[in-house]
Amino acid sequence: MSLPPMLSPTLPPWTDCVQVEFPKMLSPTLPAVFEFGGSKKTAQKTGLSHEMKDKSFPVTLKVSKKALSRLDSKSDVSKATEDDAREGSRESKTNGRTENRKEKEEPSSSARSSASSARIPAARDLDKSTTPTKAKSKAVSPTRDEETKQQFKLLRKKMRTWLDLARAKKHMSDAKFTSEEFALASAAAMDSLLCYIIAFNYEERADILTGRVPQDKSWGSLVNFVNRVNFLLEAAKQPHLIGCCYLMRAMIHVRVGLVLGTQAKALARGGEGNDEVPPAETLALSLCRTQEGYTADFRRASRSLPLSQISQHFPQSYGRRSRTAVPVVHGGGYRPWSDEYALPLHVYSSLQEAAALGWNMTDEWIRTEGVKYEWACRALA
Q1: CA-CA-CA-CA torsion for 3, 7, 9, 11, nearest 10 degrees?
Q2: 329-357 pLDDT tens trace
Q3: Which portions of the chain have biased composition (kind: Basic and acidic residues) (predicted)?
Q4: CB 314 within 8 A of CB 364
Q5: 185 and 232 in contact (C-beta within 8 Å)?
């Protein structure tokens, strides 16, 4: 028997294909409260057995295999759709929350990006050649070559200034010697010697700055000039200052030896054919003469100006000596009126110390003698 759908409003729609056997006492208008069950044969045919709350009306369902396959597929599809709908609703809820969070977070990230874009211009808008920092660096700090040229010009300018002072003092010394003012002639000669030493030191620094090999010609010219100063000091009867000049000439020989050693190294590195470097034979002879020269001058100075004579006749100069045995050297220009010196001077001392000792001893002598003299090297301090 097949029931139309309108006669049983409580049955599910899938009972369209189900054949139901009702007991005779039941009316089709009564509510369908029944139990899937019955005999074992019907249970095996239908494959369904459910227990309802009210078991007073046993009902047996007979369903064909085709209907069962249709029911199974429909139930699977309905379950799958329900599960998908539930998962979709959950995902929509969670996605809604996450989307809300993203929407809340997106303005802050956009604000950050806008702020960073306001602070930092885009890379395409920057021109490497016209950036402000590089423009300022070009305007403020010159290149290394320009700095080297400026330093070279400055050193050469200082050299020429000191050379002019040295020549002026030399002429003054000659004039005072002619007028038989031997004290002033000796002081001017010592002043001229110190100005030459300062000037040649600037010349050597300028050569080293530009990578040129330093020359010994300028320093070698001072060896003969010291003989002129000693001649004037003999006329002024100042043997202790003559001993000081021996020390200064010994240190000039040492300085010449250092320059010759630099030339020998340049020659060993392949400097043959370079006009600035003399041949090997000439270098060897010059080094031998330099060694003989400072050895003889140190011997003369030790005889005429021992340390006890300095402390006795030049107490102020002796008191200004440095207490360290290490040679006192600085990288700037020579300042004999303020440079330090360690006593006694030896082969490991510096020409800078010898120049400072010569200035202090000569200045102390002329002040003791009451001679009025203005130092050229002190005037530029």
Answers
A1: -20
A2: 667 778 899 899 999 998 889 999 999 99
A3: 69-107
A4: yes
A5: yes
Name the most confidently modeled range: 100-114, 134-148, 183-197.
Answer: 183-197
Contact 247, 309 (CB under 8 A): no
Q: How far apart are CA 118 and CA 169, in angstroms?
A: 68
> What six digits make up the tokens of 35?
């139990």
Q: For 292-323, write each residue's pLDDT tens digit.
A: 999 999 999 999 999 999 999 999 999 999 88
Contacts for 185 with CB less than 8 Å, ≥ 6 apart: 173, 174, 176, 177, 232, 235, 236
Residue type, 156: R
Beta-sheet pairing, 35-36 with 19-21: unpaired
How far apart (Å, rounded) are the C-alpha atoms in residues 375 and 367? 12
Alpha helices in the chain (DSSP H): 40-46, 65-119, 132-140, 144-178, 182-209, 217-235, 239-268, 280-304, 307-313, 315-319, 351-369, 376-379
Radius of gyration of the chain, Cα coordinates, nearest whole angstrom? 57
Structure-token pair, residue 284: 């060897």
Burial label, 86 (beta-carbon count in 10 A; 0-12, 13-18, 19+): exposed
pLDDT at 51: 45
Residue 171 clears pLDDT 90, i.e. is over it: yes
Encoded tokens for 344: 């006694």
Beta strand pairing call for 58-62 and 19-21: antiparallel
Answer for the pair 356, 339: CB distance below 8 angstroms, yes or no: yes
- Domain spans of the chain? 5-63, 79-120, 145-379
* Other C-beta atoms lying within 10 Å of the C-beta of residue 331: 5
Contacts of 18 (CB under 8 A, 6+ apart): 61, 62, 63, 67
